[in-house]
Amino acid sequence: MGTTAYTWDDKAVREDLLGVLTNLTPTDTQLVTGLGVNEAKQPLHQWLTDSLSAVKNNAQIEGADATFHSLTDPKRLFNFTQIFKQGFRVSDTERETLQASFSDRYAYEATKALKMLKNDMELAVLRGSLACGGDVGVARQLLGIEHWLSLVTNQSGISLTGAILEDYFQMVWDNGTEVNACYGSMYIKRKISGFTAGATKNFDQNDRRLVNAVDIYEADAARIVKLFAHRHMSITGDVHHDVLCINEDLFKTAYLRKPFIRKIPKTGDATKGEAVCEVTVECLHKHGGVFGQNHT
Predict the structure, then answer these.
(1) Angstrom distance (rounded) from CA 201 to CA 119
(2) What is the H or E stretch that residue 164 is in?
């Protein structure tokens, strides 16, 4: 009688490795992806804004000569382009080795580097602090949306309510535009979804889904506001949460160099490259948003 063969000690059994590689790192880039795009011509990116004269009682005598209002010069605003880089290196042996999930490790790492670059750009577009980079060894940094806003209110640990949120909307409306996007942490997003505004939610008892999310907010001072949960609107370990209310039409990303992959000359037995991008943020209306700080 022969000996029974078992798989656990059979050296002829091939490994069972799924040929799909899953990357679990979040890649949410609502601002970099969603804002309008413009072109920068040099590292110091500038643009002009102007305003109308104040509203007045305008009644003219028949046949009278023309009257002239005082001219106001346009204002010049600026931001610096920021250089983003993400390098990667793959040994030439690694590139020739048979692997699961991809045929060329270099191509895979290039795609991965572009995604990492985009994540870094998202953080800068939202929260970047201005640096001119004039000194040797100092990198230029763009001014992010959060620091462009002149309408800033600190709630000092006050719980966000519907009334507070709509006060934010009105602050923007009073200053000449209208909020159409609101960004907050997931905590803030869930808090807004919990606002009832005096409404009753009705459900079909045959529908097994429970829907408890609000993605569009309508108010007197802001007709349609898209709500976004943004990963960079809260800082790890901070018990307070910020709220960013803006008109997205008044902010753009301006590229001096759009993202691309550049090969780096070989200096050893490896293939090197880097993802590169140079971009800044345009703000067309500094009052076109409000930054509410320190909610609970």
Answers:
(1) 37
(2) helix 162-174
Distance (Å, whole) CA 200 – CA 205 = 15
Place of tokens 């079909």: 204
Return the beta strands (E) in 136-287 as ranges: 151-154, 181-184, 216-217, 225-229, 241-246, 251-264, 270-283
Classify residue 240 by burial, with Cβ atoms within 10 Å: 0-12, 13-18, 19+: middle
Tens-digit pLDDT profile for residues 199-220: 555 556 666 555 557 789 999 9
Q: List, for residues 141-167, the tens digit of each pLDDT value.
A: 999 999 999 999 888 888 999 999 999
d(CA 48, CA 77): 6
Q: Residue 153 has which token pair?
A: 């209110």
289 φ, ψ (degrees, to nearest 5): 180, 170
The per-residue pLDDT for range 93-145, each reduced to its tens digit, is 988 888 777 788 888 899 999 999 999 999 999 999 999 877 778 899 999 99
Question: Are 102 and 18 in contact, with CB atoms under 8 Å apart?
Answer: no
In angstroms, the CA 125 to CA 143 distance is: 7
Structural tokens at position 39: 């072109």
Residues shown for the chain? 296
- Tell me the CA distances in angstroms from 292 to 132, 151, 157, 214, one per residue in order: 27, 9, 11, 20
Q: pLDDT at residue 185 above 70?
A: yes
